[in-house]
Amino acid sequence: MSKILRVNMTDLTAKYEDVPEKYKNWGGRGLTSFITLEEVPPTCHPLGPNNKVTLAPGMVTGTPAPSSGRISVGGKSPLTGTIKETNAGTPFSQHLARLGIKAVVVEGQPKENGKFWLLKVDKEGAELLPADEYVGKGLYEVYPALFDRFGKKAAIMGIGVAGEMKMAMAGVCFNDIDGRPSRYSGRGGMGAVLGSKGLKFIVADDTGGPGVDIADKDLFDTGRKKLTEALRTHGVTKEGGGLNTYGTAVLINILNEAGGLPTRNFSSGEFEGASKISGEAIAEGVKQRGGAGTMGHPCHPGCIIQCSNIWPKPDGTEHVSVIEYESDWALGANCGIDDLDVIAELIWLCNDYGLDTIESGGTIAVAMEGGLAEFGDGQKAIELMHEIGKGTPLGRILGQGAAFTGKALGVVRVPGVKGQNMPAYAPRAIKGIGVTYATTPMGADHTAGYTIGPEIMSVGGKVDPLEVEGKAEISRNLQAATAFLDSTGYCLFTAFAIMDIPEGLEGMVETCNAVLGTKWTVDDVGEIGKEVLKRERAFNEAAGFTKADDRLPEFMYYEPLPPHNTVWDVPDEMLDQVWEL
Amino acid sequence: MSKILRVNMTDLTAKYEDVPEKYKNWGGRGLTSFITLEEVPPTCHPLGPNNKVTLAPGMVTGTPAPSSGRISVGGKSPLTGTIKETNAGTPFSQHLARLGIKAVVVEGQPKENGKFWLLKVDKEGAELLPADEYVGKGLYEVYPALFDRFGKKAAIMGIGVAGEMKMAMAGVCFNDIDGRPSRYSGRGGMGAVLGSKGLKFIVADDTGGPGVDIADKDLFDTGRKKLTEALRTHGVTKEGGGLNTYGTAVLINILNEAGGLPTRNFSSGEFEGASKISGEAIAEGVKQRGGAGTMGHPCHPGCIIQCSNIWPKPDGTEHVSVIEYESDWALGANCGIDDLDVIAELIWLCNDYGLDTIESGGTIAVAMEGGLAEFGDGQKAIELMHEIGKGTPLGRILGQGAAFTGKALGVVRVPGVKGQNMPAYAPRAIKGIGVTYATTPMGADHTAGYTIGPEIMSVGGKVDPLEVEGKAEISRNLQAATAFLDSTGYCLFTAFAIMDIPEGLEGMVETCNAVLGTKWTVDDVGEIGKEVLKRERAFNEAAGFTKADDRLPEFMYYEPLPPHNTVWDVPDEMLDQVWEL
After folding, report:
1. CA-to-CA distance for A380 and A390, rounded, in angstroms?
2. pLDDT tops 90 at residue A1
3. What is the mean pLDDT of residues B320-326?
4. Please, what is the average pLDDT of chain A?
């Protein structure tokens, strides 16, 4: 029987509770959003004592289901003020699940400010230990020390100095398969919420744990095989496919050719340096430099897509893992930077300080527009990152994200929604993703309804990215399907295969049924997702969000984006139709 | 026939337009809010090209009506995101009115950033002149230079360096009767909006102007005399009364005794240093030091209340005008500072840099709570003000106000509503003013519905400040009456007399009828005010504000305030009842 582990930071207790009936069939995002809606007052201060952080592995996480090692982190976001779910792929999720933990709920706040704690969870139970010795240090220094102390078999959730300083772009860090602090639930500043609660680490070790109960093992194997087959067949996800060969940055050239790669703070959809930072360039650099350089690296055991990478320095020693498409774009094209070694260093700093790479890149771009550096000045970008890490006054501005930085510097062109900066797809050139940015309960977020599939990649259909018509429906359907997917523990990239190969989706649903004992069909997926979305929207509505918040920033309505020279012209009424569920 | 002067900062034109019929019976706040609702897209960026700033003298401003020299400044606020009206008493309002100008509407935005302009308005017309020579300088240096250039008879609206830097606590400055840059439409950052439009000054000279048409001169005289009599009779407003003798800071001791004087960032309602910064102490200091020291100073010609003052240095030379109650409290008690000379210097810096004193004090208090200085450290407070004026990174944080500073520093205890810091009355000890803070369309604002009259001063009734019951109705009625009053051009302090002396209100309404040709009765006042409030709320609703925004900050719900040790316990439902108009 799995449990909920409730960690109270006011009285420093960690207690196991039975899982209430209503939560039993939920996992991942579905569970974090459910608990957040039930337990967090929507109008509470995100960094006050009444917010809570919930961590939940997906429904099938911890089983042998392929590419299912996601963990969701949820609560009220200090960046957006909305409900937030942000997930990552990491062995940590599997450890929690195999320890029989359906969710960790972190609540309360120590009376004394500036003290930090570490939660140790293993088969013996859970306890809070002082963590002050790790405060103020980079995560690349601290993670090895923690593995030395708790053993290499453990898995670690952590926050960096950004989270300690309660910065709104502080992410929640997890280790990768080799122990690096490199897998992030980055978006929305949930690291700051953990910082406000004084919880710096969770160290989980599933050794001797009960594992994940599977109600119907035969059904599970049937489903697992179908899904595995689909993933191994689809061009995007198969071995030697686009993601495996070039990593997610395979999208750089594709988006650039589509005129939808946001460049220099979303002032163009084309970057003249795109080819130098593309997935192809990464693969070539890895090959040429050799040494530690690796493509096709998995973020957690059991991933069969393996889209991660390790970028080597010129001498072949390791620089950073991972140059992800979003990070590459955010700290590259969006800042006018075309040097992979600079981008690698910026990503390393994000990992070390505990920052969301997307918001970091968006923030540096806004700072550049505000005159703090020239676009393309990589060394100055690195200096700005250090300001954040040091917590200087300038760093305190930047660490709060792009919207905050724009306000401090009087920059009007801030490309965000609900306070969260947009990711790597230009909505004036790709209308559907703009609909998702505008309407997802999460603030501007591409993963919430990845219309890039049909709009750019011809996956799950094929539609014109510049066309407005029909995009509300596409976004809505994808948002619903994604809310389900984010609850399962499966990686979002399984979506490519299940959208195009019906047996893949069947298999996915069968694995969920096999674990949970449910009787869902593929036709239930959308409705289950809508349940999640309804809860998230209920939270946001009670927190004071309205249709007026479901809009792109004003400047996109009047400033044409080269090369298509199109403005944002999706009618407000169409955006509102998304939520006529 | 009065006109609207439309100033377009995109093409640098200033043109007179006829006043549309719908605006004819409006002035002051009623007019600025009407024009803002009609012309400003509620979801626009406050510092973008689509926001507008409207300046409007009141209905009777420019006539011999007593204490009627207010000017309203309206638009969308960069501090709150709401509609904003903020008014000041100054000869400038009278100049505009006597030039036949019902409103100045400033719109558009220069393509080139960092260029500034000066609008010159006189009987010959209106023209824009370059103002770059005044950029980056303190207003105490610039105002004399402008009077030298344009003549002592002129009146000047200006923004300081804070407005140039688009800081959200930048106010709009006006000269007092002696030409000092000391009368402020301070709240809500309207100085930043003017800064975003590149309009640094308006110089108005009514010499040879047409004056204000009075439709019925006999009725006007009748009304004027009734109101004058009421003002000269009421204990608060009469010559030698509380305001005239001690200035507005007469409230320091009164609020302190009531346990409602917010101290050290609203952590207590009692300040041990209150008597040292009280109105009585100011009057005593003025008397003892002599020289330039003055009590009973009027802010504009024709004011018969005369509550302003000039604070002298120890040697009798002028330090600053004016130590207003709100400024005295904000930069004094709320920062734990009990030294009038330090407070005078902080006010001088606000005037010089172009900052709202209330938000400045609130911000320094939050910065103190965030560890940037000890409460009570006046010299450090002065240094922080200089950071703002210099526009250092720290200054860029502070200049955006208390909520922004709280976010940058991770301070949860930020006593604001809708992003605007609370003024000098503790809502946990005085419930009615908390209802006004929560529900006014303006963000936390005492002037919007000054329940302190009945709750503390026994004016307009007498109710227990700690009692919850009935406060929604009191606040609603006062908010409506105030929306009317803010439209007339009369000073808010006339409210004391008209609430207690029926003939005073009669006289006020008669003067309005006499000028406008309307047939209002005293019974219409509330309805006229409600029309204004409905427009303001319509703007806010379209901008995305909901009931969730009509709340006090969360910490006031769980943290008791000494000495009464009461929390904020007005039910949300009661707050929502305020707007069942």
Report:
1. 15
2. no
3. 98
4. 97
A–B CB contacts, 8 A cutoff, strictly below: 97
Burial class of residue B232, CB neighbours in 10 A (0-12, 13-18, 19+): middle
Domain A216-236+430-581: which CATH number of 3.40.50.720, 1.10.599.10, 2.120.10.30, 1.25.40.20: 1.10.599.10
Query: Region A259-271: what's the mean pLDDT?
Result: 98
B contact test, residue of A159, A166, A372 with most B CBs within 10 A? A166
- Which residues on chain A are in Cβ contact (under 8 Å) with B49? 558
Which chain A residue lies closest to B114 (C-alpha atoms)? A410
Nearest-CB residue to B412 (from A47, A404, A546): A47
CB contact under 8 Å between A549 and B544, yes or no, is yes
Q: A3-204, what's its fold?
A: Aldehyde Ferredoxin Oxidoreductase;  A, domain 1 (3.60.9)
pLDDT value at residue B306: 96
d(CA B144, CA B147): 5
CATH number of this structure's domain B215-236+434-581: 1.10.599.10
Inform me whether the pLDDT recorded for B392 exceeds 90.
Answer: yes
Q: Looking up tokens 């690296």, which residue turns up? A: A297
N residues, chain B: 581
Q: Which residues of A touch B192 (CB under 8 A)?
A: 410
Which of B166, B169, B363 should be substituted to probe chain A, the one whose Cβ sees the most A Cβ atoms within 10 Å?
B166
CATH 1.10.600.10 fits B243-426, yes or no: no
CB proximity B461 to A under 8 Å: no
Residue B54 in 3-state DSSP? Answer: strand
Q: Band of the pLDDT at B114, cuts 50, 70, 90? A: confident
Model ipTM? 0.96
The pLDDT tens digits for B330-385 are 999 999 999 999 999 999 999 999 999 999 999 999 999 999 999 999 999 999 99
For residue B542, which residues of chain A lie inside 8 Å, CB to CB? 548
Residue of chain A with shortest Cα separation from B41? A554
Q: Contact B156/B43 with Cβ under 8 angstroms?
A: no
Q: Give the residue on A whose Cα is nearest the Cα of B544.
A: A548
What fold does the segment set A239-426 form as a domain?
1.10.569
Domain residue spans of chain B: 3-204, 215-236+434-581, 243-426
What CA–CA distance (Å, rounded) separates A16 from A119? 13
Give this prediction's pTM: 0.97
| Mean pLDDT over the full length of chain B | 97
Distance CA A33, CA B451 (A): 41
Q: What pLDDT, in 10s, does the model give residues B235-291?
A: 999 999 999 999 999 999 999 999 999 999 999 999 999 999 999 999 999 999 999
Chain segment B126-167, per-residue pLDDT in tens: 999 999 999 999 999 999 999 999 999 999 999 999 999 999
CA torsion, points B574, B575, B579, B580, in degrees to nearest 10? -10
Q: Is A61 exposed, middle or buried (0-12, 13-18, 19+ CB in 10 A)?
A: buried
Q: How confident is the model at residue B111 (pLDDT cuts 50, 70, 90)?
A: confident
**Mean pLDDT on B166-186:** 98
Q: Do A407 and B412 touch (CB under 8 A)?
A: no
Q: Does A412 contact B196 at a Cβ distance shorter than 8 Å?
A: yes
Q: Do B410 and A168 touch (CB under 8 A)?
A: no
Q: How would you class A279 by CB atoms within 10 Å of its CB: exposed for 0-12, middle for 13-18, buried for 19 or more?
A: buried
**Would an 8 Å CB–CB cutoff place A76 in contact with chain B?**
no
Residue A408 C-alpha, separation from nearest chain B C-alpha, in angstroms: 5
